[in-house]
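Memo to structure team: turn this sequence into structure tokens by end of day. - J.P.
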Amino acid sequence: MKKLISSLLLVIVSQLLLAQGRIIVWLKPGVPAEQLALTYPVTLTDFSPGAPFALYTVTGGQDPHIIEADMRAGGLVNMAEDDHEMVAPENVGAGKGGTIGAVFDPGALFEENRQLLSQINYRFRHLSLFDRPVRIAILDTGVPALNLYIRSRVVAGVGIASDRTDYFDRPTGVDTNHDNEPDGALGHGSMVSGLVAQIAPFARFVIARVADSDGVSSAWNLIKGIAFAAQNNAEVINISFGAVEGIPALKDVIENWLDPQGVLVVAAIGNNGSDSANSPASYSQVICVSGVDQNNLKAPFSNWDGKARQSAPATGVKSCWWDHTMGVWSGTSFASPLVAATIADSLRSRPRYTTNVQLDALRDLINATGTDIDGQNPAYRGKLGRLLNNHALQQAIIQQ
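Reply from structure team:
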């Protein structure tokens, strides 16, 4: 009894239109969000509690770019950039996701993913008395409400997407991207969270539902989700979607606000089948993950880029589904959490990273660890990253 849904992927296409004239601002210390609304022709639309970010809507038909320039020159902000709409297109690259007709069971999932786990040289590590708790943030469509195996791991959760305020991955019945198929991204966040739970069984989850059930999000949603993750002590953030074009506000926040705090971002390269990583995977501070098939050949839909640091299985991946059954899907969306979870599981056995200098050393280590698959992929030499070797990467991080 297979139920197919529209393919979401991971690739989110930025429309490069201002989202109703919205501006994302990074406020300087001591500047209240309300002050800008009194100084410029904007209305305060949203803010990130406890973090210096706010979203404004331009009023009176003003030119947002002129206002942004005035804000930057006015001394009240560190950044003022466009908020881009981001839409997960139907039928991009990686095909469709659906159920495999079985109630979710952690043991059965290990059996279903036996080949995948062998491919990445997965080794289960028992919990040690000397291990510490590690939190990993998942910015996606939410987690399955009925799956206690996943829900029991959540220590903090927030709904940021506009359709609902909860953080669960469930149907809403909306057709946000106007493709005549409501809930086209249903199951995406559930799949990602299930894979993280499988690879990092002792990690705790910080969940930010940044995309609605149709896969629609925005740069602001991601920034608010990143801030929530950092404030709730996440050490690794997985982002399994992105934009074809660069998003300056998102890049600025990751590089200049998040990275100095020692928080690592892992993101999928994209499913366009093109020679360029999507944002935020393209940013130098982000661990960019490409996708391969079961033979370690580049997955047909996966992008490739010299910025890729790791690759991981991305075809026929199985995990939990939104309705407490099991699902199967293909896409680099599901390669990224395999790498993110490996890193998170390793961190429990070593001191926490607290600076971007330490993260630079970690990124270099990740870039150099794993199986070289260039020989099997000569057309993409140097552009897929090393194939994830779970055991080797864990040992390298622990011993660093």
